[in-house]
Amino acid sequence: MSFVLNPVQFIPAPEAVRDAVTAALGDKVLRMSVEFGEVNVVVKAADYLASAQLLRDNEFCRFEQLMDLCGLDYSEYRNGEYDGLRYAVVSHLLSVSLNQRVRLKVFCTDDDFPVVDSVTGIWNSANWFEREAFDLFGIIFEGHNDLRRILTDYGFIGHPFRKDFPTTGHVEMRYDPEQKRVIYQPVTIEPREITPRIIREGGYGGAS
């Protein structure tokens, strides 16, 4: 019995992927760049769903798989010098048939109530990813049919990956032996800022 090994599939240059994505999305592209060998494209929230559909269905794109989706909070980006929209959603797409990748980014238009369309109807793998972004960042995915917390529990208050979320949280839980159940109570940990103390012996490193 003999086996025939398939040759290594051709990997298109990032510039070729960029040109294919540009041709597919047209004026929906807000910004486009190639960084670390991968194409990054930013679209408006109003064009997000249509752009995702085009990236999957266009014959020169064919991004059949959503590999990852996450939220971002830009509120402390560049040490406060950033003045753009606060919340973004980033999707990492893979074309198995064409052996290429793209990173799709969209910003939520309302910092107080961040909303973007759900892409679960295009890639069903977005289901848990979008639930995670909702849970951790409070981003609403319109059209998601089961948008609920996935990592924190039902009694959790707030969204822990937001930059303004306190490191101690808002509530803590413990077992109450009198009630014989787990209860929630206001957090009892006092926030502290620990500054490390540096002690050097005389003559350390040649210093006098």
Characterization of this structure:
By secondary structure, this protein is an alpha/beta fold. The chain has a domain at 14-155: 2-Layer Sandwich (Beta Polymerase, domain 2). The chain is 16% helix and 27% strand. The chain has 3 helices and 9 strands, in the order αββαββββαβββ. It has helices spanning 14-25, 48-57, 126-137; strands spanning 29-35, 38-43, 65-73, 87-95, 100-107, 115-117, 140-142, 171-176, 181-186. Strands 1-2-5-4-3 form a 5-stranded mixed sheet. Strands 6-7 form a two-stranded parallel ribbon. Strands 8-9 form a two-stranded antiparallel sheet. β4 (87-95) and β5 form a beta hairpin. The protein is globular. Mean pLDDT is 89; it is low at 1-7.
Please summarize the sheet with the most strands.
5 strands, mixed
CATH superfamily of the domain at 14-155: NADH:ubiquinone oxidoreductase Nqo5 subunit
**What share of the residues does DSSP label as strand, in percent?**
25-35%
* Unreliable stretches: 1-7
Radius of gyration: 23 Å
Mean pLDDT: 89
Number of strands: 9
Return the CATH architecture of the domain at 14-155.
Answer: 2-Layer Sandwich
Coarse morphology: globular
Q: Please bin the fraction of helical residues.
A: 10-25%
